[in-house]
Amino acid sequence: MKLLVLLWAAITIAAQTPIDARAEGRAWKAKGNAAAALAAFERAAQASPRAADLQDEIGFLLAVLGRQAEAVPRFEQAIALDPRYAPAHFHLGVALWLRKDSARAITAATEAARLDPKNAEYRFRLANMLWEAGDAKGALREALAAPARADAWNIAGLARQRMGDMRGARDAYLQAVRLKPADAEYRNSLGLMQVELGMAKEGLAQFQTILKADPNNRTAQINTGYTYLQMGDYDAALAQFRRLAAEHPGVAVIHYDLGLALKQKDQLTEAKAAFRQALLLDPAMVEAHYTLGITCWQNGDIDETADAMRRAVAGRPDYAEAHYMLGTALKQKGEWEAAAVALAEAIRLDPATPGPYNTLAQIRQQQGDRDAARKLFAQAAAVKRKLENSQAERLGTMRPATRPAPPRP
Q1: Rounded CA gap, 75 and 394, in Å?
Q2: C-alpha separations of 268 from 264, 297, 300, 370 in Å
Q3: Are 278 and 259 in contact (CB under 8 A)?
Q4: Ranges of the chain with pLDDT below 70
């Protein structure tokens, strides 16, 4: 009897038409049985070897089953059979991205979006790839093509923020929050942009909304303390960060923000200790190196200032302010030529700031090079005039000072 059952099952499978096998595959897929769906689609593909959609389905199911290496050739076969079949390009892009082949992944995802430009999923996934690959402009373009998705608006906000457009970032995060008001990440980002744009009360309201729903949301707690700093309520900020540092002693940005609050209260020795603790936890935190250097400068420790600024520029070679402070500290130490190199780099990176010109001019004057000093003083004066003339515009568009991002909850 068992033999008859097996024979009957074999005959039934052999008699299936490609349409029957497709239907069976879709049914198993709907039930979440990827292995059974794969078997059915493979039978359908044997009967219809030139069907691009079947190769794509097989590739998709192989990927679901964790067989990425086998999935990629199936997607490529589907594209060879029908180069205009957008799903295969999209699935190939996702599979390649998971295999860390970002360049080919972006190429495939771009082609999927070109073939089906109204597909919001394609545009969003491409935006996410471009963002992670460092292409903020491309990510913004693709994110704006999926306006019904909160996660796409979030990427648009991140991209605008990286591009220095804080108002645009705020507006993008606002759209994300409107579409998904319960998402704490989007609301935290919106609140932080409002704070950076001088709308501290509005930002604080965002963080309070988050904490009402989730009192333990660490990012909102950190952002609340940072808002107190921006509002000038240093006592409230200090109390907030002391409490957070006790509760989360292993979070570097909390110790950094605690240092900022202590610095504002002129408790410089404690502030330096907080910055050092932040750097012990995260040695790559460039902002902590820089702010530790500034605090040491205020405390008269020129040697540590220079050391901190060296670490800051090592971590971020385009950090103009750190080059400027390094040059200033080295000048104070009498290391004129090393100071001149740092100041020249500060000028190259940010030619619109008069300070480095003046400090470098003083060095050249002390070295007896009067012509070079005169030219540098003149450049400093010209830059200062230009800066003053455009100050109103700059205040409206200037990017806020860099701050480490708080950890996600």
Answers
A1: 51
A2: 9, 10, 11, 39
A3: yes
A4: 1-19, 390-409
Between CA 319 and CA 323 the distance in angstroms is 7
Domain boundaries, the chain: 1-116, 304-389
Find out whether 140 and 159 touch, Cβ atoms under 8 Å: yes
Assess contact for 329 and 305: CB atoms under 8 A.
yes
Would you give the distance in Å from CA 393 to the centre of its chain? Answer: 27
d(CA 261, CA 266): 9
Element (H, E) at 166: helix 166-179
How far CA 60 is from CA of 63, 113, 177, 260, in Å, comes to 5, 18, 32, 51
Q: Which pair of tokens denotes residue 99?
A: 């295999």
- CB neighbours of 8 closer than 8 A, spacing ≥ 6? none
Tokens of 194: 């409002």
Is 101 exposed, middle or buried (CB count within 10 Å of its CB: 0-12, 13-18, 19+)? Answer: middle
What backbone phi and psi angles, to 5 degrees, belong to 380?
-60, -40
Q: How many CB atoms lie within 10 A of CB 22?
A: 22
Q: What pLDDT score was predicted for residue 407? A: 54
Q: What is the value of pTM for the model shown?
A: 0.81
Q: Name the helix (H) or strand (E) containing 88.
A: helix 86-98
Res 380: pLDDT: 85
Query: What is the largest distance, in Å, between two alpha-carbon atoms of the chain?
Result: 108
State the CATH class of domain 1-116.
mainly alpha
> What CATH number should be reported for the domain whose range is 304-389?
1.25.40.10
pLDDT the model gives residue 386? 84
Phi first, then psi: what are they for 251, rounded to 5°?
Answer: -100, 110
Structure-block tokens of residue 34: 């990827």
